[in-house]
Design brief:
By secondary structure, the protein is an alpha/beta fold. It is built from 10 helices and 10 strands. The strands form 3 sheets. The chain has a 5-stranded parallel beta sheet, sandwiched between helices. The protein has a 3-stranded mixed beta sheet with strand order 3-4-7. A two-stranded antiparallel sheet has the order 9-10. The chain is elongated and about 70 Å long. The protein binds adenine.
Length: 250
Amino acid sequence: MKVFPVTQKVQSEMEGLSIYVLTIFPGLFEQFLRYGIVKRAIEKDLVSIIVVNIRDVAYDKHKTVDDTPYGGGAGMVMKPDILAASLKSTLPFREHRQPRVILLTPQGKRFNQSWANKLSLFNEIILICGRYRAIDERFRQLYVTDELSIGDYVLSGGEYASMVVIDAIIRLIPGVLNDFESGIEDSFQNGLLDCPWYTKPEMFEGLRVPDVLLSGNHADIKKWRQEQSVKNTRLRRPDLLKNGSDEVNE
Ligand code: ADE
């Protein structure tokens, strides 16, 4: 198993969330782990991200992880034995024997802020990044507990989707953001989009900052922001107001 140097801690040494990512392209995560909120969360020991190269458990000399589909058809299918072996290779590092095993796939339930909230409360999750045409159905049936999609489009693999999921989760872990408020006040946390924000200068290319924000009246400012949030949501995402679609869709 390949573990990146930045994430060498094993679960038993960890207080916070451990995220295992199974992928055939571990290199894609190198930069992702080195910047911004993700880097800070790792450095503060609030999260541990262990990137596992699925190919490490391949047993033939070509390090094969996929094969042609039974019944024919275009594309390749990820082998169930390889995926299962890769998953089991994380066992010595894990505390939980039955963690959430999440497959990133366009067939999954739509990932949203409620899912991010829910996943941020676990202390161990495993993300499986599918590649090729599909993963073998038997691995899905036997090992996968949840399937998540980040939107109705097809990516070349689950890697970018898992980065999206990881980023959204990490910023919700208390202590990760300097000001935890800014995490809980993010767009979607209350089912609404965010309000507009302004900084200096007061006048920019003929546009002035709204008077209320310069008034110093915090009650008025709070009220204005709330109204703007509702207005923004009604204009851009009326579906959020109608059906409360930010639920965890189970
Ligand atoms: N893998 C490929 N496309 C995806 C998507 N839309 N969401 C999650 N994983 C994916």
